[in-house]
Fold each of these.
Amino acid sequence: GQCILACPVGALYEHENINDIWREIENPDKLVVVQTAPAVRVALGEEFGLPIGTRVTGKMVAALRKIGFDKVFDTDFAADLTIMEEGTELIKRLETGENLPLMTSCCPGWVKFVEHNFPNMLENLSTCKSPHEMEGALIKSYFAKRMNVDPKNIVVVSIMPCTAKKFESQREELSNQQMQDVDYVLTTRELAQMIKEAGIDFVNLKDEEFDNPFGEATGAGVIFGATGGVAEAALRTVFELVAGKDLDTVDFNAVRGIEGIKEATIELPNGAVINTAVINGLGNARKVMELIQKGEKNYQFIEVMACPGGCINGGGQPIVDKETRENIDVKIARSKAIYDEDKSLPIRKSHKNPYIKKIYDEFLGEPNSHLSHQLLHTNYVAREKF
Ligand code: SF4
């Protein structure tokens, strides 16, 4: 923490983390595992001169293997898992009418904002940990068991578009048996730095695939990277769970787009209505929260991302110079890449992910089970107002 104060651009702090990870990789006693958030793959290429909006998923995986990570996992898998857990939570809350609106909890900037500014609405936050934290918890339990490795010798590194995730990963409650779920968070920029330090010719890398069991994700997991994506992913699954059968509904265009506040009224197959608000930027979130507190708005589901445009435009993403920004809308180009990746995937609904089905069958039981609560859910604390 101190370095952030000493070094206003965070460069010192960034470099410290990179050196820690090189040290862990060189330690033969450690199994060092990495996972990457959805928004990283649509921006990392910019650091190597590729046009904004280029998808580099396969090259990113190849680079991570070359750097020396023992397993390369996809946080998108846990985004699918989040939808199973949070979708089930939403269905339950709609039935009981309690703690509505359900507010998403995958953005630590937003969660902290609620803790500081709206402590009387902490119960409205989904109890789901954010996807990379869920995946970290599973790596140190389910995966450790499968590999027959002591979880204390596993190091989990998350590559995130986000600087707030560094703080999040150190939260005491995001741990299990005295181990943090995630040990280190690196930003997209820091990963680029590591790739450069390793002397890897990124642009000419051949595509490689993520490792299993956390390597398969659906289009729903991918769209978490753009504002509106979590809401859309949840709706894809909640619709079918409520209907009890397969449906053609995949695209929910009403929640897409980079406007700061979007509203949509969605009728579920059982007639229940979900008034949804999708918000990006904390100034917009404050406006909506004040309307809710005054009783002027009535929602059942709210998605909030602290960064304008969502994680594609997070604080850890490549910095685009002013001249380029005048010619291209970075948020639109990166979010187009996210929705293209979604469309390119054979499975686009979280509950259809075969590895998700498998982990419930083999390990977790069912969404919101006792074990799910123990590993995948968390709680929040009121913090001083600012
Ligand atoms: Fe982090 Fe911004 Fe994404 Fe929130 S919206 S998780 S602060 S990158």
Amino acid sequence: MFEVLNNEILAPGLHRMLLRAPRIAAARCPGQFVIVRSAAGEERIPLTIGDADEDAGTITLFVQALGAGTQKIVAVEPGGYLRDVAGPLGLPTHIENWGRVACVGGGVGTAVLYPLAKALAAAGNQVTTIIGGRSAPFIILEEELAAFSAQVRVTTEDGSRGRQGFVTLELENLMASSASRPEVVFAIGPVPMMRAVAELTRPQAIPTIVSLNPIMIDGTGMCGGCRVVIGDEAKFACVDGPEFDGHLVDFQSLGDRLSMYRDHEDQCRIGLHQ
Ligand code: FES
């Protein structure tokens, strides 16, 4: 059992949860995730470890309450417990000093980007962070990211904060000048956003790393649920990823697999509110 120490709403539907999990806090690296179940028999939800404090023995998870499983997780109040938190899982992010790096986050992807951007800055990179969301309330962690980014650029679809449009607009600006062109781009967010970033960087051959979020069940490479196509090869995001070369990812098949259970998910969500 894992105690919930704090549970705050960061943006509409997005919770930041602090858990007591000393062994995970001591072992985790940026880019790794855990699989969480709110109670026995409940859905297993993969969640990136947003941050960890080894001394305090805590980890931070960002949970977007989209489906029935995530809604049950965010419903646990401080002082309550989550049944299982398994991890750390997945391969750690490969971090080195590339020079100029752009970190692009969309929606809850910004939360996933946070530990990565922090580690890239700590390795000596000059990090420009670009974050986007539907509107101002969906822009998260701007201040936290500014603490170690050379610059944070914000876009919103309705123009209520930062520049109106998508994150790709700001990335395009950055890429237009040799003085700001990133050596490497990390992009984390919805599948269409990561795909758009990869297509933008492809003509200039800027290495682009994306973090994939397919359906996961066991998190150990046994069930095949998280299969993704990278180049001509089938890979399992839980053991081979979750980060991959964005120029090799088959985003179409990833999107198709993610939408496979949408009807079932809708029914579960309706059941939860009856
Ligand atoms: Fe089962 Fe990856 S979650 S193989």
Amino acid sequence: RKERTLAMIKPDAVTQIGDIIQMIYSKNLIVTKAKMTKLSWKQAADFYSEHQSKSFFNNLVQFVTSGPMVAMEVMGDEALSTWRKILGPTDSALALKDTPNSLRARFGTDGTKNAAHGSDSLASAARELEFFFPSATGSGPPSTA
Ligand code: CMP
């Protein structure tokens, strides 16, 4: 089944974008949109609002606002599960033990600084893609702002 997902490279792994894009294409997925941006605290808190009651929420928002990130729309057969398999476990320290070739093992550090994010469901993917790549409204040409 052909799907779209959000793949987000976090500030700790932005310099590894070349290797990360290679990992995506090597699994027969393609990058159909990409944007580098530094989120404000409010934007990051909104993006991660489902975690707002968690103990790690402030650390998470602090981390993802610490520098630019790269958001990508990744497309292909089973894109959600394929990208999450590329990522490996959420905790990079665990990933290093269990799946040493995974992206989070290679480029992350621990449970918060974990190099990249992937949508966990089709509904999350739709919301997260809309967050970074809002649908055009109106009939004019694309904004250059
Ligand atoms: P991500 O896939 O972006 O989804 C939520 C993020 O919260 C996760 O990656 C980590 O960066 C962070 N996170 C999840 N669980 C924990 C935890 N137990 N402790 C600290 N940070 C966490």
